[in-house]
Write a structure and sequence with these properties.
The structure is a single chain. By secondary structure, the protein is mainly alpha-helical. The chain folds into 4 domains: about 180 residues, 3-Layer(aba) Sandwich (Rossmann fold); about 90 residues, no CATH class; about 200 residues, no CATH class; about 140 residues. Helix content is about 60%, strand content about 5%. It contains 33 helices and 5 strands. The chain has a 5-stranded parallel beta sheet with strand order 2-3-4-1-5, sandwiched between helices. Helix 10 links the parallel strand 3 and strand 4. Helix 1 crosses helix 2. The two termini are about 60 Å apart. The relative contact order is 0.07.
Length: about 650
């Protein structure tokens, strides 16, 4: 159950209303050029709205809709020319204008090619007043023309091959400037729209805020070229803060002050006539959105029942301040027999919905990323074999802190990792303090004794706990069910190691790692740690055993005595419950790689009758397979056991 991060045809956010509003705006101004900005943070749903607009306009035959993704042209030499050429090419293709207006098409592509060559020659720096190129620029123009002619893949040149030659271009370049060229291009393009018999040309520009500043500015400059062209509408999806940053980078000489920010904002305001900012999701919308995401992942977002639920939810989203979230009874009634499949998803959404709405600041992509990380970590725990140690609600609560209060999460993790039981006692005190029911109906007068009691309680609080109690964000998080202060948090911290390893040498597991390292030393040194080995509880002894096995197997050397085997024997001697695990390890060793060491040194470790019988079977197998030294040693050891019997 992984949630897709791409655009979808299922509108879970009721953004169709925004798309329809924009379509109505451009429909009212078909004869006038218009630019509309769809603004919102990264992941707010801008691309999805563009997809809705495109889907609607496809059904309108007298409107041509062209999509342009600025990010895909990030590596192109000139994104401005790419956009201009893309618009013209799509228009010609969709209206078969090569046959209807061939001569006009060739003239327009001549203009585009002139702009290409001017760009290659540094022509964009031509004087706007004289338009006279330098000698070096003329030579560069010549070379640019030659490159265009020599390139058989240049489709633009093919369209105008009969009209284009380097001599003609050079003669046209002389005495011309870019302003005039742009003006002539606009005039020819206006004629092309008339020939195409379209009511309106709509250009959708996406991912502009992902582009580097230079690319973003080039695309905006290309849009400005069409601002005075009839029947054109540009809809630009971008985070306006990123575009303002691109403008400031493009004009580095502006002083770093509010003046530069004001200039950048005015630049964008002149280009975007009608700005439209996508509103962030509030708490009711977030609750509904999370529920729909999780339910759709469980029963399939193409199922009839889910589509019906989405339709019902969108009706509630019209007035979320009144309707609130989706109620369980409503969901049960719509999903009917599929309801049992989504009960756990509903519990999870109810748990994390309120704090996720404030933590993600109503951003749909942030919400999806959180849920996907939650699901993947749970799957990782399952794949590694400790899924039974993970409760999804506890994982979700910890991840809320990790994602939105990272310093607080680090404090919890450090305290839990350093605890022998993996618990964070300070967190338990905080949850108890905040969730202790009290009668708040009437304000009570405090006695002197109660004040003294409060002061004493505060004095007993650790500095860490006092800091948490004074944080409104942490208090809000701590109130979320379930309470986790008395839970063993080590499994949850282990699957969060992609962020940070909390099991350093000062942690409980870190202590065990240090002990396991000591067991890799010589037998004499190991004997001095016998007392510490006796102090280990069964779970800790098992942890050290697994750490030792990992190191022994990792050495990949079994011809001679590997480091750690002597420590393994002493550990099992002190914790006899580990004998079955030791025999499992020995049975899985490859015979053809074993040295004779494996046959001896276990007399004090393997004492249980059942496990000793398993070891004798192994000795019998080794006496018939493997190296000659292994066979000889195994026979001798097996004989000594039989003599003893």
């Amino acid at each position: 159950m992984i949630l897709s991060d791409s655009e979808t045809d299922i509108d879970l956010l009721n953004n169709e209303a925004i798309a329809k509003t924009i379509i109505d705006l451009i429909s009212e101004r078909t004869e006038q050029p218009v630019t509309i900005g769809i603004h919102g943070d990264w992941g707010a749903g801008k691309s999805s709205i563009l997809e809705m607009i495109d889907s609607y306009l496809k059904e309108t035959p007298d409107i041509i809709c062209i999509k342009f993704n600025g990010w895909r042209f990030q590596g192109f030499e000139d994104a401005k020319i790419a956009l201009i050429e893309g618009i013209v090419s799509d228009l010609i293709e969709k209206r078969s204008l090569m046959t209807k207006a061939g001569d006009l098409v060739k003239e327009i592509f001549q203009k585009i090619n002139w702009l290409k060559i001017a760009k290659k020659a540094g022509g964009l720096a031509f004087s706007a007043y004289t338009g006279l190129p330098t000698f070096e620029q003329i030579n560069s123009i010549k070379q640019g023309i030659q490159n265009l002619i020599d390139n058989p893949q240049n489709t633009t040149l093919k369209l105008a091959s009969n009209e284009l030659s380097k001599i003609e271009l050079l003669s046209k370049a002389e005495g011309k400037n870019l302003i005039k060229e742009y003006s002539e291009f606009q005039k020819k393009f206006d004629e092309l729209l008339d020939k195409a018999e379209v009511k309106q040309l709509v250009v959708l520009i996406d991912d502009l805020d992902r582009c580097l500043p230079e690319t973003a500015i080039e695309i905006l400059e290309a849009i400005r070229l069409f601002l005075f062209t009839r029947k054109t509408a540009f809809i630009v999806a971008a985070d306006e803060a990123m575009i303002e940053y691109a403008v400031r980078k493009h004009f580095p000489d502006l002083p770093e002050s509010s003046t530069s920010q004001t200039y950048a904002r005015k630049y964008l305001e002149k280009l975007i006539q009608i700005p439209f900012r996508i509103p962030a999701l509030g708490e009711p919308e977030t609750k509904i959105y999370v529920k729909l995401l999780l339910i759709g992942a469980e029963i399939g977002d193409n199922s009839t029942e889910f589509r019906a639920l989405v339709k019902y939810a969108r009706e509630k989203l019209i007035r979320p301040w009144i309707a609130g979230s989706l109620e369980t009874t409503e969901i049960q009634q719509i999903l009917q027999d599929k309801y049992p499949k989504v009960q756990s998803a509903l519990f999870l959404s109810d748990q994390i919905g309120p704090i996720l709405s404030s933590g993600a600041k109503g951003n749909p992509r942030q919400i999806k990323r959180f849920l996907n990380t939650l699901i993947l970590r749970n799957k990782t725990a399952n794949a590694r074999g400790f899924a039974e140690d993970i409760e999804l609600p506890i994982l979700a609560k910890l991840m809320l802190a990790e994602r939105f209060i990272p310093n607080f999460f680090d404090q919890i993790a450090s305290l839990a990792a350093s605890s022998a039981q993996g618990r964070c006692i300070e967190l338990h005190h905080l949850e108890t303090h905040l969730n202790n029911p009290s009668d708040k109906s009437k304000p009570k007068k405090k006695s002197v004794a109660s004040y003294v009691e409060d002061i004493g309680a505060k004095e007993n609080d650790s500095q860490q706990l006092l800091e948490w109690k004074n944080s409104a964000t942490i208090r809000e998080w701590a109130k979320v069910q379930p309470f986790i202060g008395e839970k063993d948090l080590r499994p949850y911290l282990f699957i969060a190691k992609d962020r940070k390893d909390y099991f350093g040498t000062n942690s409980a597991l870190g202590h065990l790692i240090t002990l396991a390292e000591k067991l890799l030393e010589s037998k004499f040194i190991i004997q001095s740690f016998s007392l510490k080995l006796n102090e280990l509880n069964p779970n800790e002894a098992s942890e050290v055993f697994e750490l030792l096995i990992t190191r022994i197997v990792g050495s990949n050397n079994f011809q001679t005595l590997p480091k750690g085997v002597e420590g393994l024997s002493i550990l099992v001697k002190n914790h006899p419950q580990l004998q079955p695990a030791l025999l499992d390890f020995l049975e899985n060793l490859q015979v053809d790689k074993l040295g004779p060491w494996v046959c001896s040194g276990w007399s004090e470790a393997i004492v249980d009758h059942a496990q000793l019988a398993r070891f004798k079977v192994l000795l019998s197998q080794w006496s018939k397979n493997g190296s000659s030294m292994l066979k000889t040693t195994a026979k001798s050891t097996l004989a000594s056991y039989q003599t003893g019997d």
